[in-house]
Design brief:
The chain is mostly helical. Helix content is 67%, strand content 0%. Mean pLDDT is 80; it is low at 41-49 and 51-60. The structure holds heme C (HEC). The site of heme C has 28 residues, from helix 3, helix 5 and helix 6.
Length: 145
């Protein structure tokens, strides 16, 4: 009885292995197509350090915009001219003391705004994800030291 059970188990196990190999072959054949299909979502999720799928702008565009793109679209109006006292891009003196407070503080200002100033939350860019605003802040800081 024991011998039969072992034999059965061995047969079953071999069968499962064969089945497994077959299933992997199938997956391999389809893997490229599947990866191609999920790629944009996978990429934006990998880049994001916040919740996956919580970035409508990124999802709609098939990928997060670069800091420079976001700056040009949503921040330049004030930060190029210095409107309303905005620190100008490239003005190292205007940025130095802000940069000294640390990137976390500047990311926070970018996302939540600076109360009582012209700096609204996300610079008023309602379709910018947090991640994109942070990239724009990084870009502005890089260009201003
Ligand atoms: C309507 C004008 C306006 C727009 C648009 C705008 N900003 Fe600002 N921003 C300001 C002003 C004014 C300040 C200065 C606030 C202050 O007095 O500290 C400022 C300050 C900042 C600071 C420094 C905050 C600090 O804590 O020192 C950051 C970072 C910043 N903006 C990022 C952005 C980003 C990123 C965008 C685009 C997504 C943007 N801003 C769009 C007006 C604007």
């Amino acid at each position: 009885m024991l011998r039969i059970t072992q034999g059965l188990l061995a047969a079953l196990f071999t069968g499962l292995l064969a089945l497994g190999a077959w299933a992997v072959d199938l997956t391999d054949a389809q893997r490229a197509a599947i990866e191609e299909r999920i790629k944009p979502v996978g990429e934006s999720c990998l880049e994001g350090d916040t919740s996956c799928g919580g970035a409508p702008a990124a999802a709609a565009g098939g990928g997060a915009r670069s800091g420079e793109e976001v700056y040009n679209a949503a921040c330049m109006a004030c930060h190029m001219t210095g409107a309303a006292g905005a620190p100008k891009l490239g003005d190292a003196a205007a940025w130095a003391e802000r940069i000294a407070r640390g990137m976390d503080a500047l990311h926070d200002s970018g996302i939540n705004g600076v109360p009582g100033t012209g700096m609204m939350a996300k610079g008023g860019c309602v379709n910018c994800s947090d991640q994109e605003v942070m990239a724009a802040v990084d870009y502005m800081v890089e260009q201003s030291q």
